[in-house]
């Protein structure tokens, strides 16, 4: 009897739950509906939702359906399936390092002619470094909405406790390593490190600025690459310095320690003094109340350099509502549109007139030295524009990680990376 | 009891972790509530993502999927059990072969198929596999279960004038109660936890299921993980509930709850 009652209750609950399924906003007949695909966390989605709502209020003839595919890997899987089935989203947001395969397939509608005829936007509004990263065969493909680069987040309290000054704007690799060594400590004398000086991801996107700062190159000709040049003296020396941060100096958690607790988590727990990261972690760190923190520029080598992180709005070539899609992209990249997203604190705007104003350099919000992101821009470089770049980068990352954690010699890692990535240069 | 502890400890840990206030990464060691109990996490996740709607969507898809699976898998299993041995062997081999097919191999063909059939962005695309018994494993489970019923029994029923339908409904199915329970729970949790299909085949965020919602919570910073774990607790609750409910039904046992409270779900599970 009890079972029957429970079963009936469960079925009733089920029927009640079905009700919201039918409730779906129906586009007005005169409206064009476009699909906008993003990938982010709930806070990102909320920011884009605000943007979409603001656009629809300004242009009631277009209905924008915002779809958030949670993780990056799932996003690419979904996008690939959509394109394969000939039903791509009208607009999608993607990083320049990852958009190569879509270029190769001719899946992207270049925004160049749209921008040229725009009454609201001009090329000069945007940082040229961000535009260049999305330019392919002379034409701008997608419109960049942000341009970040890595900085060194540091725990000011740990620096002060160790008797160190805040990093200077022109600190060098030697200063950086010395600080990391002082800040790497075994606090209870049990022989195990309790506080690390530095957290850094063993990936090319982190190592690349150091290669360039050391006058090295990643590929032979950045404009028309034919092979990797990680084995050149300058590139190799920079990579060796990078890898030795872990293998020789031990200022970065080793593979086991990193698996036990991520560097980001250690930084939040005040057990890691410096973290090399992009603007991405700023909103999370703003919630820290246990210690004071700030950001410093990357330590300098022979020349200044940093690496570009940029995402752009791309239009699908097979989309049926390209004019409506462009109107949304145009709106999103006006001063007002980018301001809405800049408020999340997660991105550095790609608009020159926004990155240098208080919308981004908000003096009330940490980090106090937000200028470090803007000051790095003149020296920012991008990875080569290649349709296969994502594959090449993945091959290098796999080898670099092993070298970084001492599982492979650096020379072996470089050789493997060159051999494995060769097919992607053809 | 020790088996119960093995199953219950992760649940308990998750429950405790889901009630920690947000703001710090998860503790490295076990701790009760060093910073107080945050019941508000369970309200907050309904605000961060449209969890109520996603739960409703999932409940609908999983219930339809599981119900249709029960019918189709038991029909297919029943038919297989009645066939001549050589055909049977071939079908079992085919079913095993299907089990070995990686799920990722059928994503794109299915997408194209559903796309051509106009089923993209419809729940039909999610529950379509149920028309084929969802997984060949479920068909095999019924097949093995029905094969243990002697053929003479069906023979006798036929002589009494029972058709195929009546034999399935009145003889085979009542004898395969535990299999039905197992297939129901397995197929329900299959659709409940299915993540890739909704991701690929649905276009409107309003239709997303709870597995996608959970992935969304997972994207949040490490300091928000209590919210993720609260989401996990809510997501596994219906499956546990269904399991307990079916235990009661199968056993017709009024003392089930008292015993369950004494020995724990894990203890019950371990006996099967």
Describe the 3D structure.
The complex is a heterodimer of chains A (426) and B (272). Chain A is of the alpha/beta class and 426 residues long. Chain A is built from 19 helices and 14 strands. In chain A, the strands form 4 sheets. In chain A, strands 1, 2, 3, 4, 7 and 13 form a 6-stranded mixed sheet that branches. Chain B has 272 residues and is an all-alpha fold. Helices cover 72% and strands 0% of the residues of chain B. Chain B has helices at residues 2-17, 41-48, 51-82, 85-100, 104-116, 123-127, 136-147, 151-159, 164-175, 177-193, 196-201, 210-218, 225-251, 256-270. The radius of gyration of chain B is 22 Å and the shape is globular. In chain B, 35% of the residues are buried. Mean pLDDT of chain B is 85; it is low at 264-272. Chains A and B meet through α1, α2, β2, α3 and α12 of A and α3, α5, α11, α12 and α13 of B.
Q: How many domains comprise the coordinates of chain A?
A: 2
| Shape summary of chain B | globular
* CATH topological fold name of the largest domain in chain A: D-Maltodextrin-Binding Protein, domain 2
Pattern of helices and strands of chain B: HHHHHHHHHHHHHH
- Structural class, from secondary structure content of chain A? alpha/beta
What is Rg of chain A?
A: 24 Å
CATH classification, class level of the largest domain in chain B: Mainly Alpha
Assembly category: heterodimer
The CATH homologous superfamily of the largest domain in chain A is named: Periplasmic binding protein-like II
Reported by name, the CATH topology of the largest domain in chain B is MetI-like fold
User: Number of folding domains of chain B?
Assistant: 2
Q: What does the average pLDDT of chain A come to?
A: 90
For the record, what is the CATH homologous superfamily label of the largest domain in chain B? MetI-like
Under CATH at level 1, the class of the largest domain in chain A stands as Alpha Beta
Instruction: Please give the share of residues in helix of chain B.
Output: over 70%
Number of discrete helical segments of chain B: 14
Strand content of chain B: under 5%
Sequence stretches where pLDDT stays below 50 over 5 or more residues of chain A: 14-27
Chains forming the largest contact: A-B, 48 and 47 residues
């Amino acid at each position: 009897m009890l079972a029957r009652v429970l079963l009936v209750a469960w079925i009733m609950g089920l029927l009640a739950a079905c009700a919201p399924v039918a409730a779906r906003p129906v586009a007005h007949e005169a409206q064009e509906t476009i699909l906008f695909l993003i990938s982010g966390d709930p806070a990102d989605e909320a920011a884009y939702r605000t943007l979409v709502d603001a656009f629809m209020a300004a242009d009631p003839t277009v209905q924008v359906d915002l779809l958030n595919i949670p993780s990056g890997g799932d996003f690419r899987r979904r996008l690939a399936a959509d394109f394969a089935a000939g039903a791509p989203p009208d607009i999608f947001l993607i990083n320049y390092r990852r958009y190569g395969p879509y270029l190769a397939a001719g899946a992207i509608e270049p925004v160049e002619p749209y921008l040229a005829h725009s009454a609201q936007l001009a090329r000069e509004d945007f940082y040229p470094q961000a535009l260049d990263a999305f330019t392919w065969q002379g034409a701008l493909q997608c419109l960049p909405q942000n341009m970040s680069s890595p900085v060194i987040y540091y725990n000011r309290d740990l620096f002060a406790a160790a008797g160190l000054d805040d990093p200077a704007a022109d600190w060098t690799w030697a200063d950086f390593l010395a600080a990391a060594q002082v800040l790497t400590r075994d606090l209870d004398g049990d022989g195990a490190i309790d506080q690390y000086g530095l957290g850094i991801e063993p990936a090319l996107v982190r190592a690349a600025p150091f290669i360039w700062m050391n006058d090295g190159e990643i590929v032979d000709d950045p404009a028309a690459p034919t092979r990797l040049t990680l084995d050149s003296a300058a590139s190799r020396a920079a990579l060796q310095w990078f890898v030795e941060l872990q293998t020789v100096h031990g200022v970065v958690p080793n593979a086991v320690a990193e698996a036990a607790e991520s560097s980001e988590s250690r930084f939040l727990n005040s057990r890691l003094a410096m973290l090399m990261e992009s603007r991405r972690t700023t909103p999370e760190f703003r919630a820290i109340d246990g210690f004071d923190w700030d950001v410093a520029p990357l330590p300098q080598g022979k020349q200044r350099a940093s690496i570009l992180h940029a995402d752009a709005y791309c239009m699908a070539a097979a989309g049926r509502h390209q004019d409506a899609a462009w109107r949304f992209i145009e709106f999103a990249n006006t001063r007002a549109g980018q301001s809405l997203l800049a408020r999340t604190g997660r991105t550095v705007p790609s608009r020159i007139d926004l990155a240098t104003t208080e919308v981004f350099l908000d003096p009330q919000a940490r980090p106090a030295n937000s200028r470090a992101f803007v000051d790095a821009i003149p020296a920012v470089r991008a990875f080569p524009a290649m349709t296969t770049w994502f594959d090449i980068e993945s091959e290098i990352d796999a080898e670099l990680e092993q070298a970084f954690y001492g599982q492979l010699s650096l020379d072996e890692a470089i050789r493997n990376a060159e051999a494995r990535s060769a097919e992607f240069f053809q | 009891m020790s088996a119960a502890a093995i199953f219950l400890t992760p649940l308990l840990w998750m429950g405790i972790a889901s009630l920690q206030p947000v703001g710090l990464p998860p503790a490295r060691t076990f701790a009760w509530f060093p910073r107080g109990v945050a019941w508000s996490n369970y309200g907050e996740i309904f605000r961060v993502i449209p969890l109520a709607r996603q739960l409703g969507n999932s409940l609908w898809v999983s219930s339809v999927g599981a119900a249709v699976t029960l019918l189709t898998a038991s029909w297919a299993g029943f038919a297989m059990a009645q066939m001549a041995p050589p055909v049977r062997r071939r079908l079992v081999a085919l079913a095993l072969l299907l089990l070995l097919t990686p799920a990722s191999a059928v994503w794109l063909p299915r997408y194209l198929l559903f796309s051509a059939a106009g089923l993209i962005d419809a729940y039909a695309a999610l529950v379509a596999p149920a028309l084929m018994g969802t997984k060949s494993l479920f068909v095999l489970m019924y097949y093995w279960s029905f094969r243990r019923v002697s053929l003479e029994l069906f023979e006798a029923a036929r002589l009494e004038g029972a058709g195929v339908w009546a034999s399935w409904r009145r003889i085979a199915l009542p004898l395969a109660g535990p299999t039905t329970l197992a297939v129901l729970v397995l197929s329900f949790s299959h659709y409940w936890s299915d993540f890739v299909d909704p991701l690929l085949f649905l276009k409107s965020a309003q239709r997303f299921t709870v597995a996608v919602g959970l992935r969304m919570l997972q994207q949040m910073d490490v300091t928000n993980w209590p919210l993720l774990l609260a989401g996990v607790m809510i997501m596994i609750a219906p499956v546990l509930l269904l399991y307990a409910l079916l235990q009661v039904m199968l056993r017709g046992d009024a003392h089930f709850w008292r015993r369950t409270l004494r020995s724990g779900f894990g203890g019950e599970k371990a006996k099967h």
